[in-house]
Amino acid sequence: MKKSVAILFIAVALSGCATSARYEAGYITRKPKKREESAFVNWMKYTFFYQGQQLLNPERVFRKLIGRPKKAIDIDENGEVPDNSFYTNRDVAAMTPEEIRLGSCQGPGPVGKISITKLKETGISPGFFGRDEQGTMYLFKFDPPGYPELATGAEIVGNRILYALGYYVPEMYLITVEGTGDERFDGKRAMASKFLEGELLGFFRYNNHIHRRELRALKVAQGWINNTDCKDANTLVAWRDGVAYNYLIDFNCSLGSAGGGPKDPSAGWENIWDFEEFFTDVFTFDLDKEPYDKNARPFSPAVGLFDANYDPKRWEPNYPNTAFEEITDEDARWMAEKIAGFTDEKIRAAVEAARYSRKEDEDYIVDILIKRRDIILETYGLKE
Prior knowledge:
Mean pLDDT: 90
Number of helices: 11
Low-confidence stretches: 1-22
Helix content: 25-40%
Shape: globular
Order of helices and strands: HHHHEEEHEEEHHEEHHHH
């Protein structure tokens, strides 16, 4: 009897759900419900509720014990991800440096004087919503006081790299704001993010898509650029022509920026709080010394704290991301192969898009991105 029960448990654990209504092949053509949720509620869900679900999920626990994680379910027979509502295949190796530099931008950006329509009320970056002389709407975000180019530069570089890797991102431009009549903004450098076309339906929830390869493997891409702010709120669903397009937005916590200033040395090494990891460490007596230098200092006000002390398998965002936590080596290698398409020249093109005023800052960021790219390739067996 005991043997039969054990066999049944193993069969259920390994099979799981063969399909799920949450996973549509290709593009999502069922209109999603509009999502609105406070940052606190979202943090509580990912930090405690979903972590508790993981601990109480027998299939996940058993797979973890035997080293057989659940494979991604949205891949073809070659392990590739077909174009879908989260991702479109772009061949980084075939892209020119100029295409990398432009990213998703299709035009010149904001034209003429800017009119403020509403001040930005959420997030840590100062900014406003505004309209240019042609009536086009943008979100304008600025650097924190004392750190010129830090957040705006990180935003642009992150945007260009994630676009090249296949993700949907908004058109983002760098401009000098003029004509608002507000001395807080006029004459200042800003990142202008063009409003997306279609009906905006709020964020998508990573936890509903934990077995998508493109979202699992996003952990490697975000780790490369050290974009530690990978929460639901930094996504946006645009519904147009009967299709849901799921965008990644808000990249000002990339590179050495924490949005409101330079990163802390621990950024990228640990969640601010991870319920599952805390209890795992307690019960396994995992009290290892931190793998980062607590005394590390920013390279410059524009760069912040960004270095090559990096382990792709250990990298963590600020808050737990349940899609990232399901990543397999196959998922990670899939992304690493795409990152391999970024030559040194193409990495520089992405950084040049941020228009840093000091050549030393540009060179430093390029150098660190190259080193972190090489670490990824070596980790996943792609380094020649």
